[in-house]
Amino acid sequence: MKKVIFENSLGNETIEVLGFKSIEALEKELALLTKEVEEEKVFFS
Questions:
Q1: b/e map 2-40, b = 16+ CB within 10 Å
Q2: d(C-alpha 16, C-alpha 44), whole Å
Q3: What is the pTM of this model?
Q4: Distance of alpha carbon 1 from alpha carbon 36, whole angstroms
Q5: What pLDDT shows up at residue 13?
Q6: From CA 16, how far away is CA 42, in angstroms rounded?
Q7: Residue 38 confidence (pLDDT)
Q8: 1-45 per-position pLDDT tens digit
Q9: How far apart are CA 4 and CA 42, in angstroms?
Q10: What is the DSSP string of the chain?
């Protein structure tokens, strides 16, 4: 995802409340969660 999406939808305070220090940390966690979901879909198929 592009940074502009996060910057337009989430303020820095919101990102910090979610427990992330930066947009990059949030993007990294999102990528990991997406990978886990995709692996589970393959496993349960």
A1: eeeebeeeeeeeebeeeebeebeebbeeeeeeeeeeeee
A2: 34
A3: 0.61
A4: 17
A5: 72
A6: 33
A7: 94
A8: 455 555 556 666 777 788 888 888 988 999 999 999 999 998 887
A9: 31
A10: --HHHHHHH--HHHHHHTT-SSHHHHHHHHHHHHHHHHHHHHHH-
